[in-house]
Design brief:
alpha/beta, four-stranded parallel beta sheet
């Protein structure tokens, strides 16, 4: 089912297949309004996610109810102080000011998404996705408070403050 672009919705741009599986777990939760989530095909690389974002900017200007979430790894690059911060800075440079409150970036810090399997003790990304999101509407972010995901906490709070949780969750 396609999202109604004239109602509040979230376009999700993914780095790779594990993020697709995470989003599959999110979308099957009963408290998630999956009809307002448009998950795109994996881009096969974080640089390509930014390219896809640049090509999708027209959605933000054409549809005032459109929000975009980028999901990617913040795997450390030798010589880089913080891949998370450098990618956050890159996103801010690419995002026009008129829609900055509708663009979000989440991912796995210092590692690739595969690291979540060991941390959560399951090879199933759908189960991990469910664990990460099921308690978000109630403010319980305990699954996010770890070395792999804690960099996302300010961005999750920004999503909540910008009203995303009000229509994303039932």
């Amino acid at each position: 089912m396609a999202v109604n672009r004239y109602k509040k919705h979230l376009v999700v741009l993914l780095e790779d297949k594990p993020y697709r599986s995470l989003m599959n777990g999110v979308k099957i939760l009963q408290n998630v309004n999956d009809g307002c989530v448009d998950v795109k095909n994996p881009c096969d690389g974080w640089k390509k996610v930014f390219e896809e974002f640049s090509q999708s900017l027209h959605l933000l200007s054409k549809y005032s109810e459109c929000n975009i979430l980028l999901l990617m790894d913040f795997d450390d690059v030798e010589g880089s102080l913080s891949s998370f911060q450098s990618r956050k800075d890159m996103l801010q440079r690419l995002t026009p000011s008129y829609c900055a409150d509708r663009v979000f970036l989440l991912g796995v810090n210092h590692e690739e998404s595969e690291a979540l399997k060991d941390f959560f003790g399951t090879p199933d990304f759908e189960k991990i996705g469910k664990k990460l999101v099921e308690d978000c509407p109630h403010g319980d972010l305990s699954h996010w408070k770890n070395t792999h995901l804690e960099c996302n906490l300010p961005e999750i709070e920004r999503m909540r403050q910008n009203g995303i949780f009000g229509w994303l969750f039932r």
